[in-house]
Amino acid sequence: MLSTARASIRRPFTMSTVDGFVGAIGNTPLIYLKTLSERTGSSIFGKAEFQNPGGSVKDRAALGVVQDAERRGLLKPGGTVVEGTAGNTGIGLAHVCRARGYRCVIFMPNTQSQEKIDLLRMLGAEVYPVPAVAYDDPKNYNHQARDFAKDTPNALWTDQFDNTANANAHYVSTGPEIWEQTGGDLDGFICSTGTGGTLAGVGKYLKEKSGGKTQIWLADPPGSVLTSYVSSGGKLTERTGSSITEGIGQGRITNNLGTLVNELSGAFTVLDTKSIAMLYDLLDTEGLYLGASSALNVVAAVELAEKLGKGIDRPLCSNASNFFLPGSKVVTILCDGAYRYQSRLFSKQWLETKGLSDSIPEHLKKYAVL
Ligand code: PMP
Questions:
Q1: Mean pLDDT, each 10-residue run in order, the chain (370 residues)
Q2: What pTM, to 2 d.p., does this model score?
Q3: CA of 121 to the centre of ligand 1 (A)
Q4: Dist CA 124 CA 109 (whole Å)
Q5: What is the pLDDT of residue 115?
Q6: How far is CA 170 from CA 24, 74, 154, 164, in A?
Q7: pLDDT tens digits, 88-145
Q8: Which numbered atom of ligand 1 lies nearest the CA of 257?
Q9: Do strands 103-109 and 126-130 pair parallel, antiparallel, or not at all (unpaired)?
Q10: In the β-sheet with 126-130, what is the strand arrangement from edge to edge?
């Protein structure tokens, strides 16, 4: 259940020092996306998860699953943590493992960026890039991680997709932070999902605290089945199509998603053409250097704000009553920075091969310098 281990990684906001890498996880700023909000007549906020010390939203989940395993006696001093990951959970785990003295072994699909593989190795993780095959294939990176842990003494597969300590980390930290930062005055929350931990943990918390007033929506890349699952009232289809966005999209209902997926207000798919244009736009107008899932999330937040269609001005929150904002207030997640994808997202040649060059407005093409 999500409510166990409340307060495990939550800290009061403070300007003082924190206790090591682990103490620096969480308490990220909520950024008002000013230009975009003014342009669209809505109030769009991005939770700056790229500011976590390991550089992504997954630091919270990595710490959550390790703390949960330690508490339950599943992970002992000198033990080995094994995980299947698109990269960010692995990076979070590699940091946490270094900070706590565990060996870290990572299995990841070989379609992921070289930057993430290099970083994992620099952090001391053992990395096994494996062919990107479907979940029902025994050679899928997740199953390989599970089997490796089974065959290794004193090792634990942290199982980020189905271990709800992941969603719980967001229920006890990300959700309460957003609630505090918006003073509880929030029309919608939307984000994409990989494991579903962020969406389920934050969504459950905001739904409970707002008494259902805050709508929770899911954003999906092409190649994921979740939009059609939600829109059809629960029918799972085959995966078709693909996306440039790394770390998101799903072909099944994970345990983490299962805690919320049937209570969502809706879902929609965002095309890569829109995500890449937003990625460059956010760099140009806000100075934000973000990964593609963050850009997808912001496209979705704007669409949701338009759907919710509020036109009135209200104070942002009770302790900032002079901060009046128009339209619907929607929060999304800025999952990570572009640093770990720059050889792709800022390469003219890569964009060309993906057929995305023409999606970037002419005046923004100057940022594709690689
Ligand atoms: N964006 C990026 C870049 C990610 O790596 C991930 C996690 N794979 C997500 C978003 C989605 O987070 P979650 O696993 O909590 O659904």
A1: 42 73 96 94 96 97 98 96 93 97 96 90 96 93 97 97 98 97 95 98 98 97 97 92 94 95 96 98 98 98 91 51 73 96 95 98 97
A2: 0.93
A3: 20
A4: 19
A5: 87
A6: 15, 21, 27, 10
A7: 999 999 999 999 999 999 999 998 888 889 999 999 999 999 999 999 999 999 999 9
A8: 16
A9: parallel
A10: 126-130, 103-109, 80-84, 155-157
Which residue is closest in CA terms to ligand 1's atom 2?
A: 247
Q: How far is the CA of 321 from the centre of ligand 1 (A)?
A: 34
CB contact set of 287 (below 8 Å; sequence gap of 6+): none
From ligand 1's centre to the CA of 221, what distance in Å? 12
Q: Which of 58, 116, 204, 274 is catalytic?
A: 58
Annotated active-site residue 58? The verdict is yes
290 DSSP 8-state letter: B
- 124 Ramachandran zone, left/alpha/beta (phi>0; psi -120 to 50): left
Q: Which residues of 84-94 are buried (b: 16+ CB within 10 A; e: fewer)?
A: bbbbbbbbbbb
Ligand 1 pocket, mutate which of 113, 192, 253, 296 (most atoms under 8 A from CB) = 192
Which residue's CA is the nearest one to ligand 1's atom 6?
A: 247
Distance between CA atoms of residues 276 and 286, nearest Å: 15
* ipTM for the assembly: 0.99
Residue 360, token pair as written in the block: 């970037």
Asked whether the beta carbons of 146 and 157 are under 8 A apart, the reply is yes
Give the pLDDT confidence of 57-81 residue by residue, as tens digits: 999 999 999 999 999 999 999 999 9
Contact 255/163 with Cβ under 8 angstroms? yes
Residue 61 Cα to ligand 1 middle (Å): 10
If you ran DSSP here, which 8-state letter would residue 334 be given? E
pLDDT of residue 86: 81
The number of the ligand 1 atom at minimal distance from the alpha carbon of 293 is 1
DSSP state at residue 261: G
C-alpha 318 to ligand 1 mean position (Å) = 32
Q: How many CB atoms lie within 10 A of CB 184?
A: 15
Ligand 1 atom with the smallest distance to the CA of 294 is 1
Copy the structure tokens of residue 172.
């006890």
Nearest residue (CA) to ligand 1, atom 3: 247
